[in-house]
Amino acid sequence: MAAGFFLMGGCSNKEEPKKADTNAVQVSKEQSPDKKTTESAEASTSIIEKEITEAPQIPKNINDLINQYAGPFSGDGVYSNTLKADLEKKIQEFKPVPKDASEQDLDQLFNYMYSLVAEDYPDPETIIKKWQLYSFGNPNLPDDRYHFKENNHIEIILDASGSMAAKVNGKSKMELAKEAINHFLAAAPKDAKVSLRVYGHEGSNTDTDKKLSCSSTELIYGSKVYNQNEFGDALAKFQPTGWTPIADSLKKAKEDLAPFDSKTNTNLVFLVSDGIETCGGNPVSAAKQLAESKIAPIVNVIGFDVDEEGQKQMREVADAADGIYTTVNNQKELLQ
Question: Is 3.40.50.2300 the CATH number for 7-14+122-335?
Fold first, then answer.
């Protein structure tokens, strides 16, 4: 069974943070020093702007390296002509560093530049969980969620928030996600029952439509064997428009799978998100309740082209569900 798929979440264009603006970062001699990074009493000016100031410190040890967040130019995508050109453009936008720049300013600038290309290295526990997933069905695995059961159920929750309309290498995230879903399901066990739930697909990502959009989570393909044409018709019914009720969608997934207890069913929930919850819910708490239910699902959470804040929340969701978190930045990584 393909291992790298998802329960899909996302962010709205209006309120959710995206990756660092690739046109916004410049080095300015006139800006006042940030207290977090410039403690020197003598310093009256700083070359550090907000994006640079807030960049995390470079890793000092293995633990720091494991826990760092993936940068917007990390992964295989940085070697593509488009992303490479974007990175070069970003670097060219930096103003010359003043000769009197402090060592602290220079260090923080280096931290920022490192954060642009920082990789998401898995911790040992995640590696073990992925190994178990790839070894699915082995009766010797310590976690019985990965043992063969009588039935298989796959729940995909697809984000239809406005930010999924953003382009990645010429295609919208929604297009790439739909392609990845079909690719994954074509390789899934033929007798597996499949469910597709979408959310944020009603209204828009405006304040006026927030209530409507945040209440929209719908099961559009109910637990049945995958039929490519029927499933494709379901996928074609919506486009990315609204807000992001991740927590409510996780709660609904728990209801969808409630009839299938883990004693005789292998339940999988797959999540890809390009951002954070924007409807006031608590997706971490919802993920914990899902994991502790009799469903006992295997949860895969994938941060798709997501910024540091989004990565942090998605990791917490995966941890709460005793699941697996992975960051991906392009279609190739999404399909793996």
Answer: no
